[in-house]
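Final report, Chapter 2: Outcomes

The project's central promise was a pipeline that accepts a single protein chain and returns its three-dimensional structure in a standardized token representation, suitable for archiving and comparison. That pipeline is now operational. To close this chapter, we reproduce one record exactly as it appears in the project archive, with the input sequence first and the structure output second.
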Amino acid sequence: MLSQNSSKLNYTYPTDSSSGSADLGLFSQLLQMVDGDWSDSIHAICSHIHNHFSALGVSLSIYDKIYNEFIYVSYSINAHKTLKEVGIDINVNTAVNILTDIYTKNTSILEEKIFTGTELKSIVANYFNNDKVKIDRIFNEFNLKAIAAFPVFESNGTFTCFFHVLSNREINDSEKTKLNEYVPQLNVALEIVFLVRKLFLKATHDGLTKLFNHKQGEILLTREIDRISRNRDCLTVCMLDIDDFKKVNDMYGHRAGDMVLEFLGKFLTMKMRKSDIISRYGGEEFLLVLTETSMETACRVLNRLKTLIRDHVFTFDSEEFSITASFGVVEYNPDAHTSLDDLIKAADEMLYKAKRNGKNRIECS
């Protein structure tokens, strides 16, 4: 249960939609390892709808409502040079990114409706950042006149599934009934996606905070270290620990403690970028990896987080209380940090220093 004072959380660290919080690259690899023709079945359904509607293209997307991200896209689209010329070279990854980018600017794409006229132009303009040349080519050469969004499995509490039909003609609402004919076959194939997703999250995420777990956090940090070793980018690592967390459990009970941890998971996810790595490292300890970020910039960001955490008021069983957090921060240096353990240890030492120096503070190496 979050406090009504959650409106205080009004700072948003710039987001980057290119990287999903649930490591979609790994999820996609796991899906590809599943035997069977489920993927071909989904693509065949998209192709059949594409032809049946005489459409420019059709896609099926799955959006995870808990983790707030697209996890799967299958599509069939006309091979048209105009798309490549305006910067759309369609594959699964770009399809996910296209939908993510559009959804960020216009959440109505996951509503049951038919987009034409001004709404359609707004969607296209948002995607192409108001580039008039590209927008004109999509409408004039690709001849896009409507995008119809049709939901399937509307009762699913975890996932939102939508067909998006791109057309060079206006589509009638009545045509939704035709799409329902595909649902039984689709259900069998999508059960594979849902099952793999469940197993994937169980293996890589903390169930309470919905953040990466200890192991996955270290795996992703190792991957990031390998990447910046080639690219020479900045990388800053932070260990965050809730101050006097035991007092929360002792005074208000473990359910109140769980509420605090759940809040912090949502808070960090909302306030940090998609490209950052956030994991629950221990009981009340969190590993934060700020990619392509210098120590100076990281400390400014973390200071804002520290202040927002301090100012937040929790309400539990009519009792109000607040918490603070301490931060230990280190910028990756390949000469000083020759292993992952060295890097984590250096951040831990800064965290212990913050605790010794009074808590509710940031210590940087």
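Archive annotation: The two ends are 36 Å apart (CA to CA).
This record, like all others produced under the grant, will remain available to the consortium after the project formally closes.
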